[in-house]
Amino acid sequence: MADLAVGTPLDSYLAQVMQADAGLRDAAAVVAAVAEAAIEISAVIGRGALGGDLAATGDQNSDGDVQKALDVIAHERVTAALRGAPVATVASEEAEGVMVLNPSAPLAVAIDPLDGSSNIGVNMAVGTVFGIRPAIPGDDVEASFRTPGTTQLAAGFVSYGPATALIVTFGQGTQSFVLDREQGQFRLTSPAMKIPAAAKEYAINASNTRFWDPPVKAFVEDCLRGTEGPRDKDFNMRWLGSMVADIQRVLTRGGVFLYPGDSRKGYARGRLRVLYEVAPVAMLIEQAGGAATDGQARILDLVATGIHERAPLICGSTEEVDCVSTYYAGG
Ligand code: P6P
Question: Which residues form the Fructose-1-6-bisphosphatase class 1 C-terminal domain (predicted)?
Fold first, then answer.
């Protein structure tokens, strides 16, 4: 695609996406709507840091997390923006069931309005995650979401960190943008993010070691043994407790992110949700030259039977993701 100069405004980039592939016109319109909502959410988070919107609502979301006012505000801002876009149905972490917006519209959107909101109180990056699929018309409003991640036309997230960044893919590589607050628009920072095949950094919540599947335990133990063990290289570890922040690091400098299933009650398939966390991330990672599995199967081939279904996520540098799979295969 021409004119992929750093600094290209998001709306110019989206116009080129639409021009290059009319089939992506509606998906580009949805990304534009999410980006507009994200600019509002970024401002609300800034004000929320002043304490105004951090109060808990006392309600719980589908994850059992206590909803914070910011979770609800982000959900409302995003769904309001999607009402003006070609979106038939929305599956949101903050809503129990599928929401019907424009029944005859061509797209279905899975959204985590504010992933990691418990981090806001300590000024840690949080994010808005989205996956866009073709809508399947009819009375079964969940039908569009019972399709594999390979049907996603586009996916991405906004990370609200030191900068507000948009990481997006339309299946033509993974692009990154940063919000230029003076201009009030996202501008291109990378036309094609590339994950190095090899890595020396892994991300996992090590406090769960005693609960992990044995292959994950063995993989991490061998990473810890460094040059004295079979991996024959030393590793660094990171765990930010915010998926978008960890994934943005992996997309930027490589590494492997693991949220595996474990033996805790309710964690057999891990913590992260297929539709609005795992599948969008998997598309971004694969489009940047990385890999994403549940330890054995390719994430993008998974079909969620329920809109809040979970899946283990092991993703990032291909050599590391493949290495984890060898441990699962008993290698
Ligand atoms: P744990 C945040 O709540 C989240 O959904 C992801 O953003 C993050 O990677 C994960 O949970 C952290 O989970 O069990 O380490 O607190």
Answer: 195-328
Half-sphere exposure of 132 (CA within 13 A, CB side): 29
Give the pTM: 0.95
pLDDT in tens, 132-172: 999 999 999 999 999 999 999 999 999 999 999 999 999 99
- The answer to whether the beta carbons of residues 225 and 258 sit under 8 Å apart is no
Residue ranges lining ligand 1, Cβ < 6 Å: 115-116, 118, 205, 241-243, 271
Q: Cβ neighbours of residue 190 under 8 Å, at least 6 residues apart?
A: 6, 175, 176
Q: How many CB atoms lie within 10 A of CB 55?
A: 11
Measuring from atom 4 of ligand 1, which residue has the nearest CA? 116
Instruction: Count other Cβ atoms within 10 Å, centred on residue 116.
Output: 21
Comparing CA positions, the residue from 193, 155, 194, 159 lying closest to residue 178 is 159
Determine which residue's CA is closest to atom 10 belonging to ligand 1: 241
Instruction: Indicate if the alpha-carbon torsion angle 214, 220, 225, 231 is positive or negative.
Output: positive
Taking residues 29-50, report their average pLDDT.
89
The atom number, within ligand 1, closest to the CA of 272 reads 5
Q: Please tell me the number of Cα atoms within 13 Å of 246 on its side-chain side.
A: 26
- For ligand 1, atom 13: residue with the closest CA: 241
Assembly ipTM: 0.98
Residue 228 has φ and ψ, to the nearest 5°, of -90, -5
- Structure tokens of 320? 């590391």
pLDDT digits (tens, 9 = 90+) for 232-275: 999 999 999 999 999 999 999 999 999 999 999 999 999 999 99
